[in-house]
Amino acid sequence: MNAPPQAVDYIQVTRDTYDTLGYPPYAWVHNEGPVPWAPMTKPLADCTVGLIASGGIYRAGQIAFHFKDDHSYRVIGTDTPAEDLRVTHFAYDLTDARQDVNVVFPLEPLHRLVEQGVIGGLAPEAYTFMGGIYSARRVREELAPTLRDRMVAQGVDVVLLVPV
Amino acid sequence: MTSAWSITASAAVPRGAFVDFPLGHTTGKPHDPDGQRALVEAGLRCLETVTTPGTIVDLGASWGDDAWRADPMRTKVRNSASGRTGDSRTERHDTPQYQTDDDRLLAEERHGSEIACRACAGFDD
Q: How far is B26 from chain A (nearest CA, A)?
């Protein structure tokens, strides 16, 4: 499976940037072996969907993410109005996300898909964190299992992951 | 869903849906609710259509112009804004980085002054 020819290769872009700065290459996560797989057991229209996003989204009143290997997460009710949502991140242009958070945290599209019967429902809690976490180990051993357990406890059938 | 094919392919996710937009727009263009809904639906449909683990489906999304590809991490833009020429990456502050000062005041009112440490500990609300 090859990338479309026009797709930006961000691994290479990062390698070039680090090389220019005289840093060793960043060790992107590279997983070998069989890809984990859970087959769909029911139609999408009957599925409860969970949402996890890494674009640095938080709710007004919550503590914002910080930029130094922050692997904490925030719980955001999926009934939260868009005007109460905020975005912070060091590695992408936040301009559009701060004008319309649905470009990185698609609550409104998902609610419309529920109304249209495309998906069965939306889990009550979404989880967010801020990507750019340097320690892949902390994500693998702490953050990811925690979010998995919370999603399972909510009874989701599928989870939509929205990285930035 | 992903706008960074190579990173997602390297992580080997069960099912991927590629959105060829500049970073920061994984689920659509701003103020385009119909386009966002269609894109998210297309991403979710991959749950039903992908049968080979590790497949990334190109959703065929088009930003409209390709100018962003010349500076995908916006390095030149940020250097220009900061006047710097070397490391254009944002400084890695270890204190919460609020979108607005009102957010900071509200959070401090609710969570007190020990907030940075609590955030480090992975608290969730």
A: 6
